[in-house]
C-alpha cells in the first residue's frame, strides 16, 4: 500500500480553512490508517501468529525470522528485537562492562548523555568519559581517532561508543579510516567497540560501496532503530555474537522489555525495512533522499533573502538530514512559520528549539536550531515549493526585525 506523500491540515488562526502542507519526512497517517496498513502487511507476508515473550525458545516464528534476517544482512551471528534504543544500548553497555571497568567513552553529544536522564549512572552504575572534539564551524567535529587516542590514553574503559552518523551534529560522519583505526585500538586494549547506529541505514550513503555488513564489521555490537529513517512505529535491534545476544535476551527480561507480544512494533519495523531499505514498491533510496536535501539546501544558501537568516550544519549534508541555525528567536521563527504557512500553504520546517540548550557551546548569534530530514514523503515536494515557503518565512523574519 502506498503512503500519501504528505498530510493536509488547516492553518491555525487563519480566517479560512486553507490547506496546509506539513513538510514531514514520513506520511502522517491516523492510527486507524496506520493499523490498517499493518493488517494488510500481515496478510501479504503470512504473519499469522503472535510472538510470545520474545519467542526466546523458538527459531521458527516471524519475530525470530526477522531477527535472523537483520543479523544476516549486517553480518552478525544473532540479533535481538527490543522496544527501544535506550534499552538496547543500556543492555549492550551492561554486557560489555561485566568483569571490566565500569566506565565507557562516547562523544560529548551522545544520546546517552543528553536525552536519557543519566540512566548510565543512576540505572547502570557506570561512569563515562566524554570525548570532546574541536569546533570547526557551528557544531563540533565528529569523533575521530586522534581524539580517541589522546583522550583515552592511560584510561581504562569497557566500551567505546561511536555514533554513525552523529545526530546532534547534523548528521556528520566519522571517516572510515578513523573507524578502522578505532577498531584496531579497541582490539589492542581489549575494549568493546559499540555502534550507535540509530541512523545506520541513512549513514550508508556517506560510505559509497560499503554494505551494511561492511559498516557493522568493525563493531562488537550494533544498535539499529526502526522508527527514524525506516518509519516504523517504534523498536530497535541489538546485534552481535551468539553469546552476546543470548546474554542480551536475559537482560531484556530483567528490563521488562520482552513484552507479552512485540508484534505491532515488529510488523511496523519489517514494513519500514522492506519499503525504505529494500525499496519495495519503488521507494526512493537514501542516496536519492540525500541528493534531494543537498539540492534544496544549495538553493536556499544561494537565495538572496533566505541566506540572510540561516546557516546549515554541516554546510553540505552528508546524509539525508541536516541542522539549520537561525539568527532569530524561537518566538520570531514561530510567527514567521505561521505567516509563511498562511501565505503559501506550506511550513518551511516543523520543530524548532532554542540554540542555547544545545549539548555544546553555540555562538550567541545563533538563537534557534531545527533538524531537517528528507524522507519518502517530503521528497515528493517540488524544489520550487521549498524555496517559496522559505522565502516567505525569511521575508517575515527580516520584516519583524526591521519593525523593532
TrEMBL record:
Domain Aromatic amino acid beta-eliminating lyase/threonine aldolase: 61-261
A single Gene Ontology CC term: cytosol
One Pfam family named in its UniProt record: Beta_elim_lyase
Protein's GO biological process: glycine biosynthetic process; L-threonine catabolic process
Assigned keywords, A-Z: Pyridoxal phosphate, Signal
Molecular function terms from GO: L-allo-threonine aldolase activity
Cofactor(s) in the UniProt record: pyridoxal 5'-phosphate
Signal peptide: 1-17
The organism's place on the tree of life at top rank: Eukaryota
Family per record: Belongs to the threonine aldolase family.
Protein name: Aromatic amino acid beta-eliminating lyase/threonine aldolase domain-containing protein
Native organism: Fistulifera solaris
Species lineage: Eukaryota, Sar, Stramenopiles, Ochrophyta, Bacillariophyta
Amino acid at each position: 500500500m502506498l503512503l500519501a506523500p504528505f498530510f493536509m491540515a488547516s492553518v491555525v488562526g487563519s480566517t479560512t480553512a486553507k490547506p496546509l502542507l506539513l513538510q514531514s519526512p514520513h506520511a502522517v497517517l491516523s492510527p486507524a490508517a496506520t493499523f490498517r496498513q499493518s493488517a494488510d502487511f500481515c496478510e501479504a507476508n503470512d504473519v499469522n501468529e503472535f510472538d510470545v515473550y520474545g519467542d526466546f525458545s523458538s527459531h521458527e516464528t516471524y519475530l525470530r525470522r526477522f531477527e535472523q534476517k537483520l543479523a544476516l544482512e549486517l553480518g552478525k551471528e544473532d540479533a535481538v528485537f527490543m522496544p527501544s534504543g535506550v534499552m538496547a544500548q543500556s543492555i549492550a553497555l551492561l554486557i560489555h562492562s561485566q568483569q571490566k571497568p565500569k566506565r565507557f567513552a562516547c562523544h560529548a553529544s551522545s544520546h546517552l548523555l543528553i536525552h536519557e536522564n543519566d540512566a548510565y549512572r543512576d540505572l547502570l552504575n557506570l561512569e563515562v568519559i566524554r570525548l570532546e572534539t574541536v569546533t570547526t564551524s557551528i557544531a563540533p567535529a565528529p569523533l575521530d581517532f586522534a581524539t580517541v587516542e589522546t583522550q583515552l590514553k592511560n584510561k581504562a574503559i569497557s566500551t567505546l561508543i561511536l555514533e554513525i552518523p552523529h545526530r546532534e551534529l547534523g548528521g556528520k560522519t566519522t571517516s572510515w579510516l578513523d573507524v578502522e583505526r578505532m577498531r584496531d585500538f579497541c582490539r589492542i586494549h581489549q575494549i568493546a567497540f559499540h555502534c550507535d547506529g540509530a541512523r545506520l541505514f541513512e549513514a550508508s550513503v556517506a560510505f559509497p560501496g560499503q554494505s551494511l555488513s561492511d559498516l557493522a564489521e568493525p563493531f562488537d555490537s550494533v544498535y539499529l532503530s526502526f522508527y527514524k529513517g525506516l518509519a516504523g512505529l517504534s523498536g530497535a535491534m541489538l546485534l552481535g555474537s551468539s553469546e552476546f545476544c543470548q546474554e542480551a535476551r536475559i537482560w531484556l527480561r530483567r528490563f521488562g522489555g520482552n513484552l507479552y507480544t512485540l508484534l505491532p512494533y515488529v510488523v511496523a519495523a519489517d514494513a519500514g525495512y522492506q519499503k525504505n531499505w529494500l525499496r519495495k514498491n519503488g521507494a526512493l533510496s537514501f542516496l536519492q533522499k540525500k541528493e534531494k536535501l543537498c539540492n534544496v539546501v544549495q538553493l536556499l544558501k544561494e537565495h538572496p533573502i533566505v541566506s540572510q537568516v540561516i546557516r546549515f550544519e554541516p554546510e553540505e549534508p552528508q546524509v539525508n538530514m541536516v541542522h539549520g541555525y537561525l539568527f532569530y528567536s524561537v518566538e520570531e521563527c514561530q510567527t514567521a512559520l505561521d505567516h509563511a504557512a498562511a501565505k503559501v500553504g506550506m511550513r518551511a520546517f516543523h520543530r524548532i528549539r532554542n540554540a542555547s540548550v544545545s549539548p555544546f557551546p553555540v555562538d550567541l548569534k545563533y538563537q534557534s536550531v531545527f533538524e531537517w530530514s528528507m524522507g519518502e514523503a517530503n521528497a515528493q515536494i517540488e524544489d520550487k515549493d521549498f524555496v517559496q515557503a522559505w522565502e516567505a518565512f525569511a521575508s517575515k523574519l527580516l520584516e519583524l526585525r526591521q519593525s523593532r
